[in-house]
């Protein structure tokens, strides 16, 4: 490409006639559906001020390697069903001799797009790269977002909700990569006991004094140690775990939103919806719709 790496808009393939692509620009998020025309060798490279999420729908190779700056090079041959995340500023390159006609979707995400700012503060996060990983929730969101982009030339309210959910999914992945600090926090057995108790009482209001008593600490010292270990205050962590459970229930069963709310201890559907939206950025109904 003639543009500098910092301005590079799309993954560069060589030879270019090997693939065909469909590009859609959604004001801060671009989708790029790439399909190989032949089972012949090609290489690729990318570096940009945009994040890159790669969804390998159908990709198998007899030979080849892929690298993301900051990670070891991979020679994995079966790539179908795997995701790759390349943070802005990181180089992505590789080559492959495909054994099937490759079909991959690339999402180019502007870190500062307005939809992902506000409380989410997406543009302030120093994301780390991930190569050839699997995540069912993120995969489903990406598939829905691709379908929506292919059918709607302009962003829809539903599409924007999917973008926000995708942002939350990427933040969740990043948080999972960061080990909780332990210095000055709870010991291993204390973390296990408290986390287990919270999981068993998701549908109940759990008092700070009760949690502190489980590990023989005063409420004041417990609250500080808990935040140091888990990265969140106890109440916030409890709410987060409730919402994570709600997401699983909304995705896996046919219970109504009201039934899910009641089963998790919310007295009103409105309070559940407000808590769910505050943490995920979307309503419970939009979340379920986004996962199909």
Give a verbal description of the structure.
- Strands 2-3-9-5-7-10 form a 6-stranded antiparallel sheet, covered by helices on one side.
- The longest helix has 21 residues.
- Helices cover 39% and strands 21% of the residues.
- Strand 2 and strand 3 form a beta hairpin.
- It is built from 9 helices and 10 strands.
- By secondary structure, the protein is an alpha+beta fold.
- The N terminus is likely disordered.
- The two termini are 38 Å apart.
- It has 2 domains: 173 residues, Sandwich (Jelly Rolls); 103 residues, Homeodomain-like (Arc Repressor Mutant, subunit A, Orthogonal Bundle), CATH 1.10.10.60.
Q: How many distinct helices? A: 9
Decide which structural class fits the backbone: alpha+beta
Helix fraction by DSSP (H/I, runs of at least 4): 25-40%
Rg value: 22 Å
CATH architecture of the largest domain: Sandwich
Principal-axes shape call: globular
Distance between the termini: 38 Å
- Please, how many domains? 2
**Largest beta sheet: what is the strand line-up?**
2-3-9-5-7-10
> Beta-sheet strand percentage?
15-25%
- Looking at CATH, the homologous superfamily of the largest domain is Jelly Rolls
- Give the strand tally: 10
CATH topology of the largest domain: Jelly Rolls
Give the topology string: H per helix, E per strand. EEEEEEEEEEHHHHHHHHH
Low-confidence stretches: 1-6
Oligomeric state of the chains? single chain
Main beta sheet strand tally, sense and closure: 6 strands, antiparallel
Tell me, rounded to a whole number, the average pLDDT: 88
CATH class of the largest domain: Mainly Beta
């Amino acid at each position: 490409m003639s543009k500098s790496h910092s301005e590079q808009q799309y993954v560069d393939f060589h030879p270019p006639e090997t693939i065909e692509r469909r590009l859609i620009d959604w004001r801060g998020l671009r989708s790029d559906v790439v399909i190989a025309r032949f089972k012949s060798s090609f290489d690729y490279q990318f570096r940009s001020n945009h994040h890159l999420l790669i969804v390998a729908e159908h990709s198998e190779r007899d030979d080849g390697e892929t690298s993301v700056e900051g990670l070891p090079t991979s020679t994995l041959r079966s790539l179908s069903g795997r995701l790759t995340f390349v943070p802005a500023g990181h180089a992505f390159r590789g080559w492959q001799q495909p054994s099937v006609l490759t079909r991959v979707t690339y999402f180019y995400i502007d870190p500062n797009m307005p939809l992902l700012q506000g409380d989410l503060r997406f543009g302030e996060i120093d994301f780390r790269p991930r190569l050839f990983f699997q995540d069912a929730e993120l995969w489903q969101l990406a598939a829905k977002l691709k379908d929506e982009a292919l059918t709607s030339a302009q962003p829809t309210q539903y599409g924007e909700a999917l973008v926000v959910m995708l942002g939350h999914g990427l933040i969740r992945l990043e948080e999972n990569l960061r080990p909780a600090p332990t210095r000055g926090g709870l010991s291993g057995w204390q973390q296990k006991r408290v986390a287990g108790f919270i999981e068993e009482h998701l549908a109940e209001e759990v008092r700070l004094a009760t949690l502190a008593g489980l590990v023989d600490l005063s409420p004041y010292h417990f609250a500080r140690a808990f935040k140091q270990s888990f990265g969140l205050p106890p109440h916030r962590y409890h709410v987060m775990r409730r919402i994570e459970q709600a997401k699983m229930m909304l995705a896996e069963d046919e219970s109504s939103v009201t039934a899910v709310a009641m089963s998790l201890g919310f007295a009103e559907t409105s309070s559940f919806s407000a808590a769910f939206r505050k943490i995920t950025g979307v309503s419970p109904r939009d979340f379920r719709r986004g996962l199909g």
